[in-house]
Write a structure and sequence with these properties.
disordered N terminus, Amidase signature (AS) enzymes, 483 residues, 11 strands, single chain, alpha/beta
Length: 483
Amino acid sequence: MTTPAPAEAESVLAIAEAVRAGERSAVDVLDVHLARITASDDQIHAFNTVTDGDARERAAEIDAAVAAGETVGPLAGVPIALKDNMCTRGVPTTCSSKILEHWVPPYDATVVERLAGAGAVIVGKTNLDEFAMGSSTENSAFGPTRNPLDTSRVPGGSSGGSAAAVAAGFAAASLGSDTGGSIRQPAALCGLVGMKPTYGAVSRYGLVAFASSLDQIGPFTRTVAESAAIYDVIAGPDQRDSTSIPQDHISVTAALDQGIDGLRIGVITELSGRGNDAFEPQVVEATVAAAEALSAAGAKVEDVSIPTAVAGLSAYYMIAPAEASSNLARYDGVRYGLRKPGPNTASMMAASRTAGFGDEVKRRIMLGTYALSAGYYDAFYGKAQRIRTLMIREFGRVYENFDVLLSPTSPCVAFEFGAKADPLTMYYNDVCTIPSNLTGQPAMSVPFGTGAHGLPVGVQVLAPMLGEPVMYRVAAALEGMAP
């Protein structure tokens, strides 16, 4: 069963230009997208909440500002969806979990403020794997999201709702969060551009934490230029986020047309998929074709070995659950969220957490708590952090000789629901994306051809810290050469 993305889906840049010029009204643009949501989201389930009332009010404000000759921002009238783990004042933020089903934040996340300041119109909050823990959006407490390209298959995760919203034409763009690949992997499976910034380049203020040293917010779009436009809006320092990089953001849009002649590009041997049966052959072939195309365009492309890259998966599944165990301790049935009765405080907390958390979240909390427990901390969490340090050093040495690196984004194209029920099989979907989260470096997925069943393949471009401008240059070149 297939539900192709609407042919009339419009670009972020075209919408904003037309609204600013007064050639289209923001209200009309919004109506088109809301009509698509009404017609098709019961099949896809991209959204947990559609904010049609607030969106109409916002669109009318933009139209009034345009009519008055006021500046309305670079994203004027652009309908954008938000992953439902970003705080929105007066609108539920559930993290697709029963424990936060009715929680309404009293403030907006920084990225939400910046989108609003740029003239964007927020159309709703999108479904995700509960607390962003998953690679398929099958773990939501409110039901799975389906891939608009083939509704028998997953859209990827954990930001599957955000990816599906753009792929289905429900929103011109969306924001997701990426802790181990949760933007890039669903982007690959839905045929979109998905980007994870340098850690600290985009504020995490108002993002409900999963793993605080790994989480980052980034955009889903149809094209690289649209991704650059949104990244330029949301990036930059924020005093409310202590991990925010204090230096001013450098526009990546300005780098898009600079070409790749003479750039040094390394294909990561350990993540290339060559000789690895866990990678679908068409995915490997697409990555090889991408490398050859970049070479033909003037880049210097060669293989490079990063031995610690394959250890990233094991290290991640110690560090991320450990941080999740700490972050999710606040959901205790006392201060906010779901509360179940009990004869005493301990029983009430246990009953609330048992009822409020799904199986995958419980699995990761228990794994993380065990890894942090006395007698096991050094053997598990401490060792994982040492591997992380080795990865940072090894990638740093490689970037002395290469401008960017290349790999597949996902080992496979979109898979059928239930096909990866075993947790370890599911976790392997993140093998190529996790290293950039552990090192804090930027990476993005760009569609490059098709694989099995005619479904899209994503090729990943990785860059050093604050290397977004050169990363976008290579991504733009890949997009232009994609079959």
